[in-house]
Amino acid sequence: MRYISTRGQAPALSFEEVVLTGMASDGGLYVPEEIPMLSHDDLAAMAGLSYAEIAFRVMKPYVNGEIDDATFRGIVEEAYATFSHDAVVPLNQLDANHFLLELFHGPTLAFKDVALQLLGRILDHFLQKRGERAVIMGATSGDTGSAAIEGCRHCDNLDIFILHPHQRVSEVQRRQMTTVLADNVFNVAIEGNFDDAQAMVKASFADQGFLDGTRLVAVNSINWARIMAQIVYYVASAVALGAPHRAVSFCVPSANFGNVFAGYMAKRMGLPVKQFIIATNANDILHRTLADNDFSKQELVATLAPSMDIVVSSNFERLLFEAYERDGAAVKALLERFQSEPSALAEAPLARLRESFASHSVSDATILEVIREAHHRTQEILDPHTATGYRAAEQARADAATPVITLATAHPAKFAEAVVKAGFPGVLLPPHMDDLLEREERYSVLPAELSAVQRFVVENRR
Ligand SMILES: *Cc1c(COP(=O)(O)O)cnc(C)c1O
Q: Which residues form the Tryptophan synthase beta chain-like PALP domain (predicted)?
């Protein structure tokens, strides 16, 4: 198994190289050269297995023997032992044939833990084997930073530097990062906004000379291993509801498209999926593209579901590559045009997408209404991201007979602001986190200057 770029010009890489590399040198994203298949019998044999065992079986062909089976099994088991629910990602039935897949039982209460608990351990394994160390840099407006820190805190060969905008993330989100006191974790509060932090990370990746030879690794959602880890819960939840003997549909609150793309991979591997419903908030490029073939950027809108606030969906490129039947030159031309002007997909690729995907966009007012209504009907308090999914599933599902699984991407306590706005007194943090507001914090405040940030990284890495 090799990995190739969606823009067709970068060299093909092994699994190990692709995990350590991130973006391809031609500006594209890496995808597997062939998609491994799960047969009817493979899927049927997964009924009743543990999440870790299903994870091992689904991911094994992508790892391609580059980590021996016993070691990889150990990595997977360790990664998912950090989740507080024995089922790792339990299903919760809401209504007749509408289920929530609770992806928020990991250390930071959002679905990004599923991928990052695994990615940190895989990176550490390969670095150990090579006798190398690496530095991770990332910018966060909240969610991803804490999941990356939790995923790397035990990794001996990694130092992680996460930049967040000073005094512009919620207290819970800041504390989920700054109360991790491990020696290899460095939180930097930048005196600026998220874009300043992001720009300094980008500049550091573009010119890595300041690290004199130490590898800089990205753990954002373009890393293939994150997609790979997310394929697993589509398979596990569908099998729990009767796959391969019956099909299911999925509804996915979406932003950078990594999550729902993983679902599409599960379908291509042989999982019977009737429909993927893409839920967006007011930042609706995915919905505009699918519904109206309006593939254009629009101003960013700050919404009650902030982890879905995006202008461009980076992983959509991976789906375009499939829709354009793996024509890297066509994908490259489309995306280069899109950077500077409103664009549209060609007819045949758009028709292919519409065979598998539907979409729906949900406003802030509707998010609040859905949180109230869902509670009234089911006694569940949904987080605002999950609320977009709940509504989109009801609006866009093709039929009532096929079970629909809405991905619950965060715990409501993590986004209590929206829950309070919807009229509830708030949501308690789960028991293992109830002292979060009393824990000791550690972080450094730095000016929004590239040289200051890079000096900090060089002086503090181990
Ligand atoms: C990251 C995130 C999303 C969006 O996921 P993508 O893979 O970027 O589409 C949705 N909800 C929550 C809570 C998130 O943290």
A: 99-329
